Structure formats: C-alpha cells, structure tokens
Amino acid sequence: MPGLVRRPVVVWLLAALAVPVLLTAVLIPAKAGTTEDDLRDRSLAALQARGINRAEVDVDGRDATVAVPDGVDPGLVEDVVGGVEGVRAVRVENGPPTPPPTEAPAEEPAVAPFEVGRTSNSIRVQAAVKDKTVKDAIAAQVDKVLGEDREFDDRITIDPATGLADATTVSALIHALAIGTGDASVRYDGTTITLTGKVPDQATKATVARAAAKAVPGAVIADQLRTPAPPRSERSEACRTFQSRLSEFSRQHSIIFLSGTSIVNDETKPSVVKAAALLKSCPSTRVEVAGHTDDLGSAASSLPLSERRAAAVKATLVRLGVAEGRLLAHGYGEAFPVASNSTPDGRIANRRVELRVLQGNP
Prior knowledge:
10 helices, 3-stranded mixed sheet, disordered N terminus, alpha/beta, 42% helix
C-alpha cells in the first residue's frame, strides 16, 4: 500500500517539470523571429528617415548586416542602425550600385512666330531669324516667285537668341502662297498656324495646308482659306424645255410590250429610238424608266415583270448612246393602270414603260 501512494506523486512532479520546458521550446523561436523582423523594420525606417534609401538590412539574432549603395557613408549607416534599440552589432557592406540619373529627352527647338502673306502686288515675310545668312536665303526664295507685278515686303529682323535657324520653315510657304492673286497669309503665333485669305482652287489650298503642317510639326492648323465658288453653268434651251418635251413625247409615243414578256412590240419599237434622241438632247437630266403591267397575272408575278420591262428599255437606251448613270429603272407592277383592264385595248395600253424626269435635277 505505501508503494501505491508514492507512485502518483512522482508522476505529477515529472509533469510539472516538463511543461515549462515545452513552453520554452515553442515560444522562444517565435519570439526570436518576431524580434529580428522588428529590428529589421525599425532599422530600415531609421535609415530612410536619414535619407538613406535602397538599403537592405538582414538581422541575425540582434546582429544587423546592412548593404547600402556606393557613395553612402558606412560610418553614418553604422551610427543610425546601431542607435536602434535592441541592435547589438552592425556590419556595413556594399549593396547594388546607384542607377545613373535618367536623362530627360532633348526638347526640339521651338519655332519662333512668323507670318508669310501675299497680296495682288506683294509678298510679305514677317519673321525673326538668327543671322543675315538666313535672311538672305529667305529673300532668295521670294525672288524666285515675285514676278514683275509683285514686290517684296521685307519685315525680317535678326535675333540670334530666338530667331529661325534656317529658311526651310518659310520657304515652302512662300512658294505655296505665290499661286493666285488677292490677299492670303499663313501666320504662326507659337501654338497655332492660321491660314486666311483666298486661293484659286482646292489643290492650292491643300498645298498650302501641307506646307504649313511641315513648317511647324505638331502645331494646330486653323485652315480658313477660301476658294471661289464654281460658276453655275447656264442651262441650254434644250434642257430648259426638256421636261415639257418629254411629257409631250409620252402623250404621242407609247412603248408597249407583248403580253407576259419584256419584249417591246414591233409597232412601238421606233418610240424607244426616238426617246433616246430626246434624252441625248439634254445630257444633264436624270430620268426614271417606269415599267407597268396589266392585271392578268398575279400581283406577285406582275411586279418582277414590270421591273424586267423597265430594265429592258433602259438597256436599249444605253445601247443607243444614253449615259447609264442618268437612267433609273423601276417596276410598279399593275398598281398604276392608264386604262381599264376589262378590255383587250385597255390591257394593251397598261403593258407599257413610261419616261419621266426625276426630282432633284439641276
């Protein structure tokens, strides 16, 4: 019985001794890791506060190894990190080299403001240039385009600091503006190129705009150049009377088809030839070729038949010399009879093609 009493006491004593050992084994590594991370973070923060960036800090226990770029004072690094609470020793090493400063791209030289213009009797150049050589080169370009009726309105000044470095900027503009008469100019104010005045045609307008864009790449182009309105051509007597003559032709001459076909009957074939002669008398007027049918077929078959009739007459007119672009063929089926479909003569009259002037003609 006494042996039974002593055995549990020994077991409890062993357990009491084992628990602290186990807790120490678990907690000490975690605490050590946490301490190293904390020391590293506080060391980096202290370095950055002194303007030392791109440093790398490694902590082993309480000993810190610091890698810094070239040019950083090791003594300063040692003092800063050594002053962090908890750090025992500091070793300084060379880290990655400091990258060279990035060079800003060279800016293109700014183009000084200028103006090139013409009137009916002069060519004007107003600009600042760097030296007399540039001024003489511009004057030489003006001499090439002056002619006998114009003079050079020379407003060129010399400014070595901000003037144009060469004549290229304005030379193309001088040649482009020399075409035509009246007032026209190209003016650059430092940001926008403004084109004003009159030029003889669209081709010259495009040439001036291209020259302006080339003179100052990237500048805003405000193109206000004007071209003369095209003169309205006088309508001939034949065209002025064309619509009434076509109406009279339709009353006197029919174009009739064989039943169920797109073949013009022999009796009215001459009408197609006469229609072609009439259409060619006014080449500018557009005309509709309208096909129609009687009501003997179904509505579903009448419409395509009327379209084939219109197309057949159009093809004959084109073959006889009428421009195809003037003719619009359209079928209307049995929708618009001109006579009663209850009689043979009425049905014959409805199997027809009519010609009429299209709206919107000049």
